[in-house]
Specification:
About 60% of the residues lie in helices and about 5% in strands. The protein is mainly alpha-helical. The strands form two sheets. The protein has a three-stranded mixed beta sheet with strand order 3-5-4. The chain has a two-stranded antiparallel sheet with strand order 1-2. It is globular and about 45 Å long.
């Protein structure tokens, strides 16, 4: 009887979470958001402060000026509902080919990724993409989906415990793999694709040629080695991104044509970055 009550309670919480936390992304996709913006902003600020303690921060004036110029041009076109005030931008001196943006107006760019970019437009595609994750509340959605997946597996586990099914442990292990490859990884690929599109629109509105986003991913394809099968990855393949971004140019190029500014952010010589600590 106690197990049955726990099962009923877990199932009720599971359904209630879906009913009460549904939202819509900037591209019209349904989302599950179970955390408040303030909570995510605090988490973002804490993570960013920790990274600044752990990573080497670039002191190169020209590199910092370049990244700040591009970031300023992008973030001025982000709605204040996403973040009010100035965005904090930090350049990390590392050979990691990476960049990120966090809730609370935080942007980090590794010098390693600057080696892959040819110009300000390609860096704008990167910054636009990362800020796109924040605009679409992907951190909130990922945390929420992980939470719901755990609840779902707990509900299933309770149900199995009450049943006479054999090989319960094997079934639960299989369900865990199914959640990982059937739900969470495609969720990640959806987020990446959505951030690509939001980022391309954002860079175009900010006065950067959106075709540079396609050129960027061609550079990434050349710089990267072999890729895992797309269904085993949280990111779309380089070619999938190139195809999607090329197709979306019909929407973003008119935005670029009507942009009132053309940011002047010349790319400096990028020093050889330090070896990653990770």
């Amino acid at each position: 009887m106690l197990l049955q009550s726990k099962k009923t309670l877990a199932l009720t919480l599971f359904i209630a979470a879906f009913i009460t936390a549904c939202s819509t992304s900037p591209t019209g996709r349904r989302q599950l958001l179970m955390h408040s913006p303030d909570e995510l902003n605090q988490m973002g600020a804490r993570s960013f402060d920790e990274m600044k303690k752990q990573e080497t921060i670039s002191t190169d004036p020209a590199v910092n000026k370049f990244v700040q110029c591009v970031a300023d041009a992008i973030t001025v076109n982000v709605d204040s509902s996403v973040h009010q005030g100035t965005w904090e931008v930090v350049v990390f001196d590392s050979d990691m080919v990476n960049a990120f943006a966090l809730p609370g107006g935080k942007i980090g760019v590794y010098t390693g990724i600057l080696q892959v970019t040819d110009n300000a437009g390609q860096l704008a595609a990167i910054v636009g993409h990362e800020v796109g994750h924040v605009i679409a509340q992907h951190s909130n959605e990922r945390l929420s989906s992980d939470q719901i997946s755990k609840i779902g597996l707990a509900v299933a586990g309770t149900g199995l415990a009450l049943s006479d099914v054999d090989n319960k442990a094997l079934i639960m292990a299989g369900m865990g793999i199914g959640v990982q490859y059937g739900i969470l990884m495609p969720y990640g690929r959806t987020h990446e694709t959505e951030a690509d599109i939001i980022g391309q629109d954002l860079m175009a509105k900010s006065g950067f040629d959106p075709k540079e986003s396609v050129a960027l991913w061609r550079n990434m394809a050349k710089a990267g080695g072999g890729e895992p099968p797309e269904w085993l990855s949280t990111h779309p393949s380089n070619q999938t991104r190139i195809d999607n971004l090329s197709k979306h140019l019909q929407t973003s190029e008119p935005m670029y044509a009507s942009a009132s500014v053309r940011p002047q952010c010349p790319k400096p010589k990028i020093p050889t970055p330090k070896k990653s600590k990770q």
